[in-house]
Fold:
Amino acid sequence: MQSSIFRQINYPVPKLILGTRNWGELVDLPEARSQIRTYLEAGGYALELTDNPKALAIAGELLPELTTRDSFQVYFNLPLFRNSAQAQSALNNALSQANLDHFDIVWSNFDIYHLAIDEIVRFMKQNLNSEKLHYFGLHHTAFWQVAILRERLRTEKINLAGLKTNWSLIQRELNKEELKACNYLNLSLVATKPLAMGLLTGKYRFNTPSDSLLARGDSALEKLLTTINASKVEAVSTAASGIGVSPTEVAMAWVLQNPAVSASVINARNTAQLNQIFQSLKLSLPEELLLALDEVGDFD
Structure:
């Protein structure tokens, strides 16, 4: 699997990071084991955990039996908290539940309207000094807050790993000017939800699979079911048919070929979906198709 670099910390990262959002809910222990094995065989080496206790427990059981800790990066997605004590408790609990002594990167989402910058800095320094983690990054944070936090942290000699943000042909949290600023600030980007919660795979074009998120009544996915987004799904499916690949491969390749994106977090229901996503690493979309898809995305 190809690797990239988180520029500010000069840290290698695989182009695809294995997410665990579905573990413990839609993905049981045997399937999670199969996913990690498949991911390792494909050359991947980074796992992202959430605060879901079931997923943390599965990771704690599987990681020791499948790979050595020093050869595998483990990230943690810290939820939004309004005080550092709650954040610290969540971080400690995640380490304990996953049976880990540290995380390589913790993605944090602090709102400086509700938590003073000095308190955020103290929290970060405390955990970096105690070696409970190696680096901090930000996720789903308003760009103006990213800029303020980055400059404040630099005075403390803390470099951010990067910014994790929604990025697909249907969803993107950063506009073009903010993307230019990220490049100017040398801030690496990690794309999340690159398939728009499965919408861009085309699985919902004609019906709703009984085992899908939509069938389970996922409200976030339901909000994406608009006429405009349906036209984007059709455009991706048409492009995929034209070059003889799957819509999943086209949608993923569009994300990964953007020079602003260092890596993408992927969440799969099964190893078949995972293998299809891996095919996107082999796909090089021609320039004219990339430009056409950019127009389909229609972002400001």
Remarks:
- The longest strand covers residues 133-139.
- Residues 50 and 86 are 15 Å apart (CA to CA).
- The chain has one domain: 3-198+251-284.
